[in-house]
User: Fold this.
Amino acid sequence: MCGIVAYAGVRAATPILLQGLRKLEYRGYDSAGIAIHRKDGIKIYKQEGKVSNLVDSLGDYQHDPDHEQAHVGIAHTRWATHGPPTTANAHPHPAGNGRIALVHNGIIENYRGLKAKLAAEGHIFLSDTDSEVLAHLVDHYYEGDLLEAITKALKEVDGTYGIACICEDEPGKLIVARKGSPIVIGLGDGETIVASDASAIISHTRQAIYLDDNDIAVIEDGKVDIRTLDSSPVQRDIADIDWSADAAEKGGYEHYMLKEIFEQPEAIRNAIRGRVDAERGTAVLSGLGLTPRELVEFHRLLIVGCGTSLNAGLVGEYAVEDFAAMLGEVEQAAEFRYRNPIVGSKDLVVAISQSGETADTLAAVREAIDKGAMVAGLVNVVGSTIARETGRGIYLHAGPEISVASTKAFTCQVSVLLMIALKLARGRRMSLQNGRSIAQKILNIPSLVERVLAKNDEIAKVAEHFVKFENMFYIGRGYMFPVALEGALKIKEISYIHAEAYNAAELKHGPIALLDENMPVVALMNKGPGQEKTVGNVEECRARKAPVLGVITEGDDEAREACDWVIEIPECPHFIATIVATTALQLFSYHVARLRGCSIDQPRNLAKSVTVE
Ligand code: F6R
Assistant:
């Protein structure tokens, strides 16, 4: 999704803005631009395509006095929503004959009406974007006070925004604002670096202020003055960003995705550290802020999320029913928000989001809060909007996930969901003995994942057989069905192979019609309940000449015989195998995509953080 970087300070703005844009590349984008306040006024540079195109177009900016003396600027990577990814549609957008420049993340929903009104007044638009309309609206209200103009403009727009804006008549000043789209203000020594994502500022400072919705911040001379849209001054806490700059780099791996797959044992250790009480056979989840008594009173655990987070949520649904004999339900966040859901005070709603910024999940959170439910966040990015709006929840502590394809977030999400299910179960009918057994199994997850990672080379070899296919099926039952969903999602997003996931029982209700030698099937057939049934389904697939890759339990020769190729995982119960088998399928997808020469960390059309619905 779009990214914002802005700078006001004592150093040359251009290199800092460009460096920030590079840090945001992982989010997915299709054009980039900067605006700097030079001695001779605001100058905008923008290009279609990669940040490197923009850098090339700037020539020798490092030795150009115009750039060296520009200490204020704004920058943007755009992920097209309104209008194609062209240079004209790239941000920053100028207005008022170039006296104002603005970058915007989010969507201005009433832009058409505003555009017509402004056009009638003589404003000339150069792009198809909703963002340019906002720049002109600021210009429309500008009478020598940028803050006042922005405040008036923002009061008139419907939709979401994170913005950064500069004005030629007010050199040295940078104004940023947010509603529904994150803005983090990094506080340096006599300088301020703003971004839509902390990864763009951590190489400069760890001290940061996260704006709340409806906040506007005026940044000048190293000072940050925040007020709300109704002009009341407000103080926001200064947070410490605990991600190291190193954690956001590739660390010797060819791709972030591979690095993040290999980080999983450590990430899961961090996610479960101090949260599993092996002695009492339960979980300690103080972030939920709920007493055991309060937990018992909930009738249902309702989980909302999107994409990979949704797939993790399905494991949570199964686990809460399995462990706690409690009603569990998972719902795609956009469906939840738009269908007037039945939810209330007897529900514990858990919103799962790696980024904590996904628009649909955030809207689902707000809907559940408005309907009186207790809502907790299961979020990775500290200080993100969902984390703050839920006000309670469990951080994953997975560290920054840079690759667009989510990996370590999923396995950490499932680990935390298993702990939630254990906690809910122990407050109900689960015995101390069973609780201890599950707690111990959760503690063993990291070492099981390490055993799968040790098979990386073998999995890479298996992947060679799949490079040529354009379609695939993934099948599983029970707990292994969400794994099939996540396996199919991973392969389609990074290798562009069309993949569908089915509950294995569903095959013969239609999809089996597609099976032939060109439709390989990945079957989750590790030992556990339903395995023999899945093996039976695999036989049906092979009878139709479909090649089969089985994810099987180590040493299970019978299952091996039913397959063309296998990936072996260590023996473990299915609820743990959700993590272990998914790790194997992440590696499988990674190698297929690598062998197909795909752009792994930045797959086409995808964005890391989906802040528009
Ligand atoms: C898939 C992927 C997406 C995200 C989804 C939700 O690899 O990354 O499907 O899982 O966009 O994102 P979060 O978890 O940030 O809410």
About this structure: DSSP finds 20 helices and 26 strands in the chain. The pocket of fructose -6-phosphate is lined by residues 306-309, 353-355, 358, 361, 405-406, 489, 493, 609-610 (CB under 6 Å). Residues 432-453 form the longest helix (22 residues). Residues 275 and 285 are 6 Å apart (CA to CA).
